[in-house]
Design goal:
By secondary structure, the chain is α+β, with helices and mostly antiparallel strands. It is 17% helix and 26% strand. The radius of gyration is 19 Å and the shape is globular.
Length: 200
């Protein structure tokens, strides 16, 4: 559930919606995004069957014009203001630009960006894992994992936080996806990056 003071405005007609995308070096607003050219995709689990432990990256896609700063690898903070209430914008999220490509006619650029889960699930964590001092609690293991990525976690106590974790493998390759999904699966939950950039 999104905790947003103006959320009821989304059910009303003729509500002015102003999108704002800020990054180091500038701001993109509705005037640079053609109508109906912004897309947000979020999912707890996109598999055919629900899979406990799933951790999926959120994605935004948008088309822009009259923006000349290259956006590749930049972090974007996306907000939306409803009916001019600039004191209470909805934070949609923080996303890192994966691709920024001109259209065939060179009039526009198509941007694709993902939240920090994208980097987590594609990282090789073998060196990190092999460098840990075991045994440790699952919560210590989880904290060490997110400290590695410098990602803040939403304060939470999970059901198996006190479980003891021993070193059972000597991996040459270990994906971040396997690590975080295992942590979440053991606790019977899902993981995602919240709109404030914290892991939930």
């Amino acid at each position: 559930m999104v905790d947003f003071i103006n959320k009821e405005l989304y059910t009303q007609d003729s509500v002015d919606k102003q999108l704002q995308i800020t990054f180091d070096g500038g701001t993109i607003t509705n005037t640079e995004i053609p109508s109906e050219q912004f897309e947000l995709t979020e999912s707890l689990s996109s598999d055919i069957q629900l899979v406990f432990g799933s951790c999926e990256a959120s994605e935004i896609k948008f088309r822009i014009y009259n923006v000349f700063t290259p956006l590749k690898d930049k972090w974007l903070t996306v907000t939306q203001t409803l009916n001019g209430d600039t004191e209470n914008p909805l934070q949609i999220g923080r996303y890192k630009v994966f691709s920024d490509k001109p259209t065939a006619d060179r009039n526009y650029r198509d941007v694709v960006a993902y939240d920090s889960m994208y980097d987590i699930i594609r990282a090789d964590m073998s060196s990190w894992y092999n460098g840990l001092s075991f045994p440790m609690s699952l919560k210590q293991f989880r904290n060490a994992f997110f400290d590695y990525f410098e990602i803040e976690q939403e304060d939470s106590s999970l059901i198996n936080d006190d479980m003891v974790v021993e070193k059972t493998i000597n991996p040459e390759v270990l994906s971040g996806k396997d690590v975080i999904q295992s942590i979440c699966e053991i606790n019977g939950c899902f993981g995602n990056i919240g709109r404030d950039g914290k892991f939930q």
